[in-house]
Specification:
Shape: flat
Number of helices: 16
Order of helices and strands: HHHHEEHHHHHHHHHHEHHEE
Number of strands: 5
Structural class: mainly alpha
Largest sheet: 3 strands, antiparallel
Number of domains: 3
Strand order of the largest sheet: 3-5-4
Helix content: 55-70%
Oligomer: single chain
Length: 396
């Protein structure tokens, strides 16, 4: 009977802390927050209690301290936090107006905000470090070692499952947004393997649980390889420079020569002379343009003596060739500044430069567009700012 009561008391304590922790997520009893402003309102209420000290706060005082938010929002959130046990009466008696706040909800709020920024990698590293210390403790028991193995096995199974699902069902943009799941994976696996070695050396009878952990680590490593492969493949075909983590670009820029850095932007045309669109609009347009649909097979054509029309690709090639020859006008090369000036205005010059860039990048055309470091500045010209360069015919 005593053991049953003790078990019930322990479960009630866990449930009480659980309710306090997740109270910051509840929009109302039994619901979840869907508006980030509600999360900010919860933090404002808990901040007010932290400043109030041991005297606590009434509902009216809380709304006054959080007056930057609508009154009804603070009152509603205050009631929700009270229902979940995150806020309780200062003294448990009828008609008590003052309340106090528990620290668990605020800790959870900080945890959630850091998780949203760092993707949980920092917390996972800390968890692995704590597990290693736990199983290394001379007072640790076999049951504690088994519990550590089971926790880590579930963590890496969930990580591997999430990455595998993202690879098989999500778009490249969604995979990039969750790329933090794959960052630092080698270090994570090394830390988990360290826990595995410690447990297996101390308690050889736990070899089955150790095998499960190794399998989950292998599945996670495979999922990371698939995710990284898909991102690299997509970045290679679309030149989507944002698909790589910022740490990779920092290392690249610090350790590369100027020519290597300039080669990253080779073939890209920037409309810096007349920014007609906002940066957000330009980014959205570029991301939309990178999306490639599935290839569609041409429908079968009836056999006849009539020649089939020329393909669209061949037509585009010949149009680019005609534009390039028009610009060259029989010359082996032409200065870009001259091309810009002949266009008269930047809108026309932008179209011509785009076609010359396309001819330069076309595999079947023998033209080359080479930019130099100089810039022509002439206020009287139709396009005052023009980057120097040469468009020429080459032999391949």
């Amino acid at each position: 009977m005593d053991a049953t009561l003790l078990d019930a008391e322990a479960e009630a304590a866990v449930l009480r802390v659980y309710r306090q922790v997740f109270a910051v997520l509840a929009r109302e009893a039994g619901a979840m927050i869907v508006d980030p402003e509600l999360l900010d309102a919860d933090q404002a209420i808990l901040d007010a209690f932290a400043e109030a000290g041991s005297d606590g706060l009434t509902v009216e005082q809380a709304t006054l301290a959080c007056r930057s938010y609508p009154h009804d929002v603070i009152v509603r959130r205050f009631e929700v936090l009270r229902q979940y046990g995150a806020i309780t009466k200062l003294v448990d008696r009828p008609n008590e107006l003052r309340h106090r706040a528990a620290f668990a909800p605020y800790v959870m709020l900080m945890f959630l905000r850091r998780m949203s920024v760092q993707g949980g990698q920092g917390e996972l590293h800390q968890l692995l470090t704590l597990e290693a210390h736990s199983v290394s403790d001379p007072k640790a028991t076999e049951d504690q070692g088994l519990a550590s193995l089971q926790r880590l096995t579930k963590v890496f199974r969930l990580l591997g499952n999430e990455l595998a699902i993202l690879v098989s069902t999500s778009t490249t943009a969604q995979l990039r947004e969750n790329a933090q799941l794959a960052w630092g994976n080698e270090r994570l696996i090394e830390q988990a393997e360290k826990v595995h070695r410690i447990v297996l050396d101390r308690w050889p009878t736990l070899h089955r649980a150790c095998t499960s952990l190794r399998m989950s680590l292998a599945a996670y490593a495979d999922a990371v390889q698939l995710a990284a492969g898909r991102l690299v493949e997509r970045a290679g075909t679309t030149r989507a420079l944002g698909l790589l983590p910022s740490e990779t670009w920092v290392t690249f820029t610090r350790g590369s020569e100027p020519d290597v850095l300039a080669a990253v932007l080779d073939g890209l045309l920037f409309d810096a002379a007349s920014p007609d669109f906002s940066p957000q609009t330009m980014v959205e347009a570029v991301e939309t343009g990178r999306r490639s649909g599935t290839a569609r097979m041409a429908p079968p054509r009836p056999t006849s003596d009539v020649e089939a029309p020329e393909s669209a690709a061949a037509t585009d090639r010949e149009e680019l060739r005609a534009e390039a020859e028009r610009v060259l006008a029989g010359r082996p090369s032409v200065e870009i500044v001259e091309v810009v000036d002949d266009a008269g205005d930047w809108v026309t010059a932008r179209r011509v430069l785009a076609e010359l860039t396309a001819a330069h990048l076309h595999d079947e055309l023998d033209y080359e567009l080479v930019w130099s470091d100089g810039m022509r500045i002439d206020p009287s010209a139709g396009t005052p700012w023009a980057t120097e360069g040469v468009f020429r015919k080459v032999s391949r």
